[in-house]
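[Q] Does anyone have a clean structure-token version of this?
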Amino acid sequence: MKDVVVTLVHLSQYLVIGYFLALNTVYLVLLVVAGRTIPRLARRRRLTGLDDLATSPLTPPVSIVTAAYNEEPTIVESVRAMLALRYPRHEVVLVDDGSRDGTFDRLREAFGLVPVERVRPQEITSREPARAVYVSTHSVPLTVVRTENSGKADSLNLGIDLASHPLVCMVDADSLLDEDALLTLAQPFVADPLHVVAAGGVIRPVNDSVVRHGQVAEPRVPKGWLPRIQVVEYLRAFLMGRTGWARLHGLLIISGAFGLYRRDVLPEGVGGMNADSLGEDFELVVRLHRHLRDRHRPYRIEFVPEPVCWTEVPDSGRVLARQRRRWHRGLYETLLRHRRMLLRARYGVIGMVAYPYFVLFELLAPLLEVWGLITVCVGFGFGLVSAPLALLFLLAAFGYAVLLSLLALLLDELGLHRYRRLGDLAAVAAATVVENLGYRQLTALWRLQGWWASLRKGTPVWGEMTRSGFAGTTPLDHGSHATVPETAAGQAPTGARSPAAAPRDRGTSH
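[A] Here you go.
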């Protein structure tokens, strides 16, 4: 028995060390690529011609599509903020997903909604039809669609089908966009209208930031350690991970809270969002890659690190645990659904590099992390692990993780400089250390639980998230403490959803 344990521990040591070296090699590549990209974008910012785009009649119109459920306290100001975005021509298509509070009444009163007859193209199917369609009498491009509750993904499909512009931007109803976010995200489509089919922007936690008139007036680092650590995760995921993968033509994720798509590619064999998926935004991008590659069509899916969407993240361990379980469950189910892309040369970088990465270093990561901790403990118990060697390895892993996070923070400061207070930078730097003292281990355990639930085909539980609201004094700065059901990605909730409702964003990929 002892010989078996000895062999198992030794093999596990080699496996963990090999995995550690391979993972960090990938991280280094992504960091180098992102490190060359973000400062260059920052230098070009003054020459990007946003003012020209904002006034040009050639800038493609955008339909902002959003789904809302029980958003009475915030919905009016959120819609006003979307309508006020700097863009030459855009409309807002809001789908009221069977709200049971006064969401629609608030909208009708604020925007003078009146019913209209609207022929639905039915290019993208949805489970629930439109009960009624309303437009504003206040000379604003707002369309409100009422439907029965069927979940966010299905409601978005209904909104996309009714959208009238060539570009469709999917945004969460209670997220906040920078004033020029939509304009910046549209730049790749203007530069290469024939090949760019989708683009994503940055998601940042808004907890404890100051919000005025639908805009984040003063970004601040959250006061609590849980949301503060998530700031580190988001910086690492978006500025290092997604920037790097986009430059390598291997981007597999666009956040469900802020993504821009060419509408014409969604009906043709793609069919919009998958209402049965727990990670419908991740699954949509993978499906886009697969569909276009199968038809040998040249295309590009871009990531733009400058436009920012601000959203609330979980500030309790209970809510965070549910979120990470669902993220990993959505990851597993999407990778399983499109497993034929794995190591297939016809899918290029996606099939040969990005897909294997997500299997090895995203899906299997929590399993190997937990297994490594278990074997180390067993090894100590049998006297098979050298304490100095184990300590050295742990310090190396710990130090490298902190270094990566600090470099992501440095990239943010060099390229975007969002946090202007020295105290905020010090708080984020401290969070890079605290993250490794139990937080990462807990998230690994939660992700394993989500994977196990998926293997057992258990019913997903959405639960509730208590929203703290935005800090500030203007109408949108509602300090509401209403308890509403949480959506995925730890971002600002869009209200209770039926079990058909899928999470918005798989979120950070570390």
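[Q] Thanks! Anything notable?
[A] The first helix runs from residue 2 to 44.
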